[in-house]
Write a structure and sequence with these properties.
about 500 residues, alpha/beta, Urease, subunit C, domain 1, TIM Barrel, seven-stranded mixed beta sheet, 16 helices, binds zinc ion
């Protein structure tokens, strides 16, 4: 398994496209370890971790099983495993042993207050071992150059493993031509914002990009809100003098999400391009995306924590600006629809859209319906809160919980079966959760640089007590112990490979 992996990476790094920059290549090989990077080092036995006596929960079932991890990968599972010499034994009796979480949608760059270090630390503290974020370009970089720069940043600063979605606008033929290169770099995904005012003017080019993405096995993330409707709603609010954030919900009507979701679903059907709809928030948008008339589409859908726990009334309270995200909070009926979709599979996964700001930044009186700091910090608490609200309250089975917080993202983004499942040969990415432990949520207990959480003071039942990332204990006793720079780019297979 390990040799195959190395071979695969070597093929990509030195392969037909010849794109990997020298620093990225060197960093990769150093992190991989092994004879090619340390020719003179004596052969050390790989460290062993034995997680003993716990209940292993995978998306397809649960059983009592020990988990032996040697080096980075799971080598054996079963009852009554004996530890090897020098193994670290972790007693997990009474605990749930689950795959490390995979969050495909987090913002850890730009003006947000987290970077790869603080963001992945927050993730690890919450049982998430792989985080997907964005390879935004700068200074005239093209999408491939931006991707290479971000990949090279991971072994310098990340604690958890990281994957990236490209992003480029307008949708040029140059960008379409780069799809195979993104796939060759192990990062086959990119994002399109339908919120852009010129999305409609670029439809023909969007379709060309989607077709190129399809041919290269690249997944297109779609932000489904119609830019023209948003612009007209904003114009009307301005004309009426209703511009404070108390009117935020009115500035982004549900119809903007509905029509964009219908449009994106039709584009998915027309092109056959694999798609992923980010932060879906409304019942009508969900019905549009899962219209049975379209048949089986290569489409995955995420919702986010805000849409499971809060309704639009929260936007009108004194702390309303803290809950501003795109799209806005919806009705109680929409909240129920998100839970229903998560339960029955019409919604594939819960992703954070982690978008961290400080409380002062969010409450800045300069902000209005046209000047926003959308999003909240969520990586730390998304899994514990969903366990408590979902599993402990009987709304989700433990298996479905694993599926919506790990396995589904692994499948949609080409990480499965290296990740998203506990089985022999997979990476030793593990969250150990104590289902009996209660915990009061406190933002001070979050490695994110954001200083508030929408879940402040919530009393949770069930709490993650340890996170293992590729065989290394990186979170225990309430502290992140992993080192900045020990994270690695999470290599992904193209869609359908
Ligand atoms: Zn986002």
């Amino acid at each position: 398994m390990t040799m195959n992996r190395r071979d695969a990476i070597r093929t990509v790094a030195g392969g037909a496209f010849g794109l990997a920059s020298i620093p990225f290549d060197a960093a990769r090989h150093r992190l991989l370890g092994g004879p090619e990077s340390r020719p003179h080092a004596p052969r050390q036995p790989e460290p062993e971790l034995l997680i003993r006596g716990g209940r292993v929960v995978n998306a397809d079932g649960s059983r009592m099983s020990d988990v032996r991890i040697v080096g980075e990968r799971i080598t054996e599972m079963g009852a009554g495993l004996a530890p090897g010499p020098d193994a670290r034994v972790i007693e997990a009796a009474g605990h749930l042993v689950m795959p490390g979480g995979i969050d495909p949608h987090a913002h850890l760059q730009g003006s947000f207050v987290d970077d790869l270090t603080s963001g992945t630390s927050a993730a690890l503290a919450g049982g998430i071992t792989s985080v997907g974020t964005f390879a935004y370009g700068q200074d005239g970089e093209n999408a491939v150059q931006a991707m290479e720069r971000w990949l090279s940043e991971v072994p310098r600063s990340a604690v958890g493993d990281v994957f990236f979605h490209a992003s480029s606008w307008p949708p040029t033929s140059e960008f379409a031509g780069q799809m195979p290169e993104l796939a060759a770099l192990g990062q086959p995904s990119h994002k399109i914002f339908m919120t852009r005012s010129d999305f409609g003017a670029n439809r023909r080019e969007v379709i060309r990009v989607l077709e190129a993405a399809r041919d290269a096995g690249v997944v297109t993330l779609m932000h489904c809100e119609d830019g023209a409707i948003l612009a007209s709603a904003l114009e009307r609010l301005r004309a009426e003098g209703r511009t404070s954030l108390a009117w935020y919900a009115e500035s982004r009507p549900e119809l903007a999400e509905l029509t964009a979701t219908q449009d994106a679903t039709a584009l998915c059907a027309q092109t056959g391009a694999p798609m992923h709809f980010v932060h879906l928030s409304s019942e009508r948008a969900l019905r549009a995306a899962r219209d049975p008339a379209f048949g089986d589409l290569p489409l995955s859908i995420e919702t986010r924590p805000l849409y499971l726990y809060f309704t639009e009334e929260w936007l009108r309270g004194p702390d309303g600006p803290l809950y501003v995200g795109q799209p806005p909070l919806r009705s109680a009926r929409d909240v129920e629809a998100m839970w229903g979709g998560l339960r029955d599979g019409r919604i594939d996964m819960l992703a954070t859209d982690h978008a961290p700001w400080t409380r002062a930044q969010k409450m800045d009186p300069q902000l209005d319906v046209g000047r926003l700091r959308p999003g909240v910090s969520d990586l730390r608490f998304v899994r514990p809160v969903l366990y408590s609200e979902g599993v402990a309250k009987g709304r989700l089975t433990p298996e479905r919980y694993v599926e919506v917080t790990s396995t589904a993202a692994a499948r949609a983004f080409g990480l499965y079966p290296d990740r998203g499942v506990l089985r022999e040969g997979a990476f030793g990415d593990v969250m150990i959760l104590d289902p009996e432990r209660t915990h009061i949520v406190d933002a001070d207990d979050d490695p994110s640089n954001s200083d508030y959480t929408p879940f402040q003071g919530w009393a949770l039942t069930g709490w993650p007590i340890m996170t293992v990332r590729r065989g290394e204990v990186v979170y225990e006793d309430g502290r992140v112990t992993g080192r900045a720079g020990s994270g690695r780019p999470a290599e992904r297979r193209p869609w359908g490979a």
